[in-house]
Amino acid sequence: MLNSLYSGITGMKGQQTKMDVIANNIANVNTTGFKSQRVRFQDMISQTNANAQGPNNAGRGGVNAQQVGLGSQVASTDLMMQGGSLQFTGRGLDFGIQNGDNSFFVVSEDGGASGMNQYTRDGAFYTDNNGNLTTSNGYRVMGYAGGAAGGALVPLSIPQQNGNLTLQNYNIDNTGTILGTYSDGSTAVIGRIALANFANPDGLQKSGENLYNASANSGVPQLGAPSEDGFGLVRSGFTEMSNVDLATEFTEMIVTNRAYQANTRSITTSDEMLQELINLKR
Q1: Beta-sheet strand order (sheet of 233-236)
Q2: 47: which strand partners?
Q3: Which among 12, 55, 148, 176 has most CB atoms closer than 10 A?
Q4: Residues contacting residue 25 through CB under 8 Å, at least 6 positions apart
Q5: Pairwise CA distance, residues 106 & 224, whole Å
Q6: Rounded CA separation 151/136 (Å)
Q7: CA dist 16 to 21, 46, 62, Å?
Q8: Helix/strand/coil percentages in the chain, nearest 5
Q9: Where are the alpha helices (DSSP H) in 144-245?
Q10: What does the pLDDT look like over 165-203, one tens digit per residue?
Q11: Domain limits of the chain?
Q12: CA 74 from chain center: how many Å?
């Protein structure tokens, strides 16, 4: 009898975890590049009251095992890494990754000095008063000093001066190449944005501020540049929307609420049965 009480508790705890994930998904419905999560459950260990028996020589058939489950537990909280829709902003330093659900921008808090890079799908970038290309939180955007990928990553900047020449304009194409136009009418490649691919992007760990860290299960980042084989393109003037589907989240919220209620009902019913047992002795 007491097992049913504790099984109900495990179910309530699991549904509460699912509700926490759903609430976080809904809260981030307008977060740039946000990836939703889902919760999966699995049953816990079962109590075996009788083992299975095979047929015997006397002609008696086999007997199945008698087992009683002891509740449920959270199996995983999965990242749903499919790309969100691109939203037009018209801003030159907004970038969305197209046709590359495995690709991420590479950023660094210290400009790569420690070698500890982080990864993001949030391509809303800015320049500071030194021309450094940064995220909204000041993380440096990493890339390649020239137009070709494959070298060491460096923090990208768009300097206003090139010797005696003044930068008049710049643009970034879908290959991530930053091309500057100077006061004498000449053009020069300033740098190229880097992308990172992962063998298992679902294994990345969220670290807040729209950033991800590589983990033991995500695999080592494979560095490259937009438009190269296996990497997505970058679209200037667009940002990636959250991939949260509100219709799905609200439906899951209803299912979760009912499941939670059902688990509380199993607890109250077990309590009523215990009360009946106690009332036998009056």
Answers
A1: 123-124, 94-98, 233-236
A2: 68
A3: 176
A4: 36, 37, 244, 249
A5: 10
A6: 26
A7: 9, 22, 41
A8: 20, 35, 40
A9: none
A10: 888 888 888 999 999 888 888 888 889 999 999 999 999
A11: 2-44+65-81+244-279, 93-236
A12: 18
